[in-house]
Amino acid sequence: MKRSTPPILTAVLLALGLLVSERPAIYGAQPDPERGFHIPDPLLGEYIRMALDSNPSIQTAYARYRAALQKVPQQTALPDPTLTFGRFLRSVETREGPQLSTLTLSQRFPWFGKLDLKGKIAVKRALARYRLYRAREREVAAGVKRAFYDVAYLDRALDIVSEEQSLLDHYEELAQARYASGKGHQQGVIRIQTEISRTMSRLELLRQQRQSASARLNSLLDQPPEKPVPRLLVPAPTKVGTNLDELYKLGVRHRQELKGAMVRIEASEQGVELAKKSFWPDVTLSAGTVNVGGLPPQDLLPDPRPGGGKNAYNLSVSINIPLQRDKYRAEVMEAAENLIAERSTYRDLRNRIQLSIRDLSVRIQTLWRQMDLFERVLIPQTREALRSAESGYRNGLLGALELLDSERSLLETRVLQARHQADYMQALAEMEQAVGTRYPAPGEE
Predict the structure, then answer these.
(1) What is the DSSP string of 106-125?
(2) Regarding the domain with residue range 41-77+110-282+320-435, which homologous superfamily does it belong to in the CATH classification?
């Protein structure tokens, strides 16, 4: 006859199975859909892999999950047996001889189902820890992306400002030549030189900001803050789908925090069942022996009899009497209130996730429209305005102030365009964290 697996063993195997079937999978060419990340840049993929391998907060979350697994055998084990030895200070004389000592072994057995429920609750709590660990992975990955795109934006901004500084150097030479030929004014030269100084100051500020962004990235990778970060690029943005109904479904299906909240609800439901079993007694089985001393020699007894000196043995069954009914009712009420709290936590978390998804959807759409506006309208217009101002300045129709205004307008527009592109990629990273799975999905990239 086929033997079935006991419920307790099933619970333990389920918990230990998490270590094998759901062990962290480092980012690869074909990642698990729930673990996959949108990786538009190979170096970004390498950074995410490094963070998943070495980030201290991820390792902390994983260790807490492993620690929670150790609760399963603790909760499903029987209480330790009790061995009691007693010695008579004054022996009791019996027909068989004097009773000298007693030895009793007792084992308490919780009421049927208590250990099984404790094991299931321990498994659920370990699984909830596992979900928190997985959520921490996504949180760190999103942080790596944000830091990566910040560094990439600052690299692009440094390039733009450096190009503008070269352009200003050219304008200074032109202004010096005009002033030397008597066609220009010294004030124009001074204004251009002032703008060059402001540009140099801006470059220094951008370099400081890059150092800070690089330090944040290194911190997520568990590396020294000063470790050099190579020049990074913001990937070319692509338009993605933002259907709210589909995104809400993704969030409910994949968000690890929601899965963890649901597991805690299940554990609380089992906690109510366990509390109800407090009204039932535990059973204690005992086996004991009484050590009986030997009788005097038969010829010394006034009434000789055969035998004597045999030990006595006994078996007993005892139960505790659960008289404190108010105490046990309070346990049930406590467990029921905890269940209500966990259900409310789940609804609150789901609402906050959906609100985050909605806000990010609006942000993604807005940033895409702004990038399109910059690409089609603002950049071409400011470039044309600068070319017109340069022509007017060479011909003496415009002064240095008008030229610098056009140059500054193009500079700010290009820098803002780069910022929008980085913000857009960061919004995609935050949406990926919000829905708990790869975003955009393969085929939308």
Answers:
(1) EEEEPPTTHHHHHHHHHHHH
(2) Outer membrane efflux proteins (OEP) (1.20.1600.10)
